Amino acid sequence: MSARKLAMITFRGLQLAFAALVAVAVLLDPALPWWCVVLPLVLAHALITVVNRWNGGAPDAPGRAPAPVEVAPPVTGRWSALNSPADRTPSHGVHAYGQTFAIDLVAEPEPGARPGFRLLWPLARRARAFPAFGAPLLAVADGTVVRAADGRRDHLSRTSLPALLYLMVVEGSVREMAGVRHLVGNHLVLELDDGTHALYAHVQRGSFTVREGERVRAGQVVARCGNSGNSTEPHVHFQLMDGPDPDTARGVPFTWRGIGVPRNGEIVETPSPATSPA
Question: M23ase beta-sheet core domain spans which residues (predicted)?
Fold first, then answer.
């Protein structure tokens, strides 16, 4: 077991210890010293800080990102970029889980087609209310499927203030303690022919068209966009990594052929791929 994997397991164990001590303090022993309760949480945050420093460096030159890998876009149609590495890195706030250069895409087939954020009501919407739900996901290059994890439900959106707070304070914390598979939900990892690994997260349950070990071609439909895992609404979360396991991988920068890396809020329009699914 690698040091990074052991560190992530320890990180989740410390979070579980904190939750258990809070329960003990509330239900069984109110006199439990406060420092005893918060110590596992402090250690967990110190450990994840170390992990972020590990994962922030390039494999061949710590502290300096490698050259971007050019691949095709993972979607077709009209999409808007969010949490883009063109605006900041790490794009999602942390280097952990190989997401230093990750990007999110939401479908914008036309202005107003995507339901917006609401302060209080509706609290949540069904996944099918969003145009991204069910959109095809495309192989960004020739490669091999090394992970196709299915079975997690596509939940309601978290696009109101109460629902977002629930996701951040309760749901997200529980998923993080449970492990990276619960964070990314249904997901696909392709090992591209150059050795880079492409991760597609929050995939629609039951939508995979490929299996582990199967060869894929660039432009082939491999799954569909969903809302599983730690997701506020149906969207595409895409990232390149230097290994197949997000717990231990470093992020690898990408550039989409003919597009580059879109900035936050930038509209991306991609043509239909030349390769169709079998």
Answer: 171-242
Look at the block and give the residue holding tokens 């969003």: 130
Distances (CA, A) of 274 to 81, 138, 224, 230, 265: 23, 11, 18, 32, 27
**C-alpha–C-alpha distance, residues 106 and 17, integer Å:** 36
Long-range interactions of 204-210: CB distance < 8 A, separation 24+:
204/133, 204/134, 204/154, 204/228, 204/234, 205/150, 205/151, 205/152, 205/153, 205/154, 206/150, 207/134, 208/148, 208/150, 209/277, 210/145, 210/148
Tell me the Cα Rg of the chain.
Answer: 19
Q: Give the residue among 117, 83, 107, 132 at the shortest CA–CA distance from 264.
A: 83
For residue 190, list its beta bridge partners. Answer: 145, 198
Q: Where are the alpha helices (DSSP H) in 62-149?
A: none
Element (H, E) at 162: helix 161-166
From first to last of its 278 residues, the chain has per-residue pLDDT tens of: 777 778 778 877 887 887 887 888 777 777 778 778 788 778 877 877 777 776 665 444 445 567 899 999 999 999 999 999 999 999 998 888 999 999 999 999 888 788 888 888 999 999 999 999 999 999 999 999 999 999 999 999 999 999 999 888 888 888 888 888 899 999 999 999 999 999 999 999 999 999 999 999 999 999 999 999 999 999 999 999 999 999 889 999 999 999 999 999 999 998 766 544 44
